[in-house]
Write a structure and sequence with these properties.
Layout (H helix, E strand, L loop, with lengths): L1 E5 L4 H12 L3 E7 L20 E6 L4 H8 L4 E4 L6 H6 L1 H21 L4 E5 L24 H20 L2 E7 L2 E2 L8 H10 L5 E3 L5 E2 L2 E2 H13 L7 E4 L5 E2 H11 L6 E3 L19 H7 L7 H18 L13
The structure holds nicotinamide-adenine-dinucleotide (NAD).
The site of nicotinamide-adenine-dinucleotide has 26 residues, from helix 1, strand 2 and helix 4.
Length: 330
């Protein structure tokens, strides 16, 4: 088994690469080419067993390049994406180019090489605001942002290649993942870093939306389960822990753990446009538990607290990296 991992230097990707090479699985890690020759979060993985890791810089949008580097790989795990919803309002076309166009390249490659397997990463954002809860894999798809639309399109492209050409695709659909190395644009690291930076008030968008927060270790474990599972091609799996917390509840929990006297400043600029706001995401994860034999560990209120403590500790230990930018919007 040799796996091409795209988006390998990102938040989830770097944790997944670490896990794969710890299991002595050969990984070709695609990092997006940049002028600093940075390996992103894989810089932290450099010290690990390099015998199992090859890092290649490039772009998932470049078909010929991806075809070349994937030639000796049995699997492709696709995590490459532009994932920021606010950025998808601004840079709509590049959002679709990477999130859909990149996947089309990967699908063409596995169509020409029918033995290759593609594990594609979707997102709970494809469902939009819950029409019923908990949300299973049959929940309607609602494109409430260009990001969501691009991921719906990519998922459907995967399913169409399975139905039309028997392509070996598996779709994993994480609900909100959190943990060390996550971008400080995301709600949990954003709150933590505002407290670390001793902000007098926590500046935040909407407080009411509810999310099914999943610790990154659990998300990564589901990818390992999918690699080991047999005959699950064409299937989609929700990866959430089936418990939701509102943004306000999450702020309160983090403040309590960090001993922060809570003051909140709801900022209009941080809110999504009304029709674009996804009010509630809560997974039905039964399919992943049963078929993937996924056993998430950070479950319930205690699991969430445990995951938050680990995340806070990591951000505190790494605060000198100064990755938190106050002006995260335009
Ligand atoms: N973090 C979450 O809560 C969450 C939830 C659901 C789904 N997902 C999905 O998981 C995947 C990974 O997300 P993440 O949270 O680790 O985000 P991330 O931004 O940390 O990682 C995305 C990665 O994609 C890479 N990338 C972007 N454009 C590329 C291109 N043109 N060519 C090659 N690489 C490119 C980036 O460099 C980065 O390494 C994404 O597909 C995202 O949609 C994330």
């Amino acid at each position: 088994m040799k796996i091409l991992v795209t988006g390998s230097e990102g938040f989830i990707g770097s944790h997944l690469v670490e896990k794969l090479i710890s299991k002595k699985i050969h990984v070709k890690a695609l990092v997006k080419y940049n002028f600093m020759n940075s390996w992103g979060w894989l810089e932290d993985v450099k010290k690990l067993n390099r015998k199992y890791l090859t890092v290649i810089a490039g772009d998932v949008n470049d078909y010929k390049f991806i075809e070349d580097i994937s030639r000796d790989c049995s699997h492709i795990i696709n995590l490459a994406a532009l994932i920021s919803i606010p950025y998808s309002y601004e840079a709509r076309v590049s959002n679709f180019k990477t999130n859909l166009g990149g996947v089309l390249n990967l699908l063409e490659i596995i169509k020409s090489n029918p033995k290759k397997i593609l594990i594609h990463t979707s997102t709970s954002e494809v469902y939009g605001s819950a029409l019923y809860t908990p949300m299973d894999e049959r929940h309607p798809l609602q494109a409430q942002s260009p990001y969501s639309a691009s991921k719906i399109a990519a998922d459907q492209a995967c399913i169409s290649y399975y139905n039309s050409f028997n392509s070996k695709i598996i779709i994993l659909r994480p609900f909100n993942t959190y943990g060390p190395r996550q971008s400080t644009r995301a709600v949990i690291p954003n709150i933590i870093n505002q407290i670390i930076n001793k902000n007098k008030k926590i500046e935040i968008g909407s407080l009411f939306p509810k999310r099914d927060f999943t610790y990154v270790e659990d998300t990564v474990e589901a990818f390992i389960c999918a690699l080991n599972a047999k005959n699950i091609y064409g299937e989609q799996f929700n990866l959430g822990i089936s418990k939701d917390f509102s943004v306000l509840e999450t702020i309160k929990l983090i403040s309590k753990i960090m001993n922060y006297e809570l003051k909140i400043d709801e900022k209009k600029i941080r809110k999504r446009p009304i029709k674009s706001e996804v009010n509630k995401l809560l997974s039905n994860n039964k399919k992943a538990l049963k078929i993937l034999k996924w056993k998430p560990k950070y479950i319930g209120s205690n699991g969430f607290k445990k995951g938050l403590i680990k995340t806070i500790q990591w951000f505190e230990e790494n605060k000198d990296k100064k990755f938190f930018k106050e002006n995260y919007t335009k």
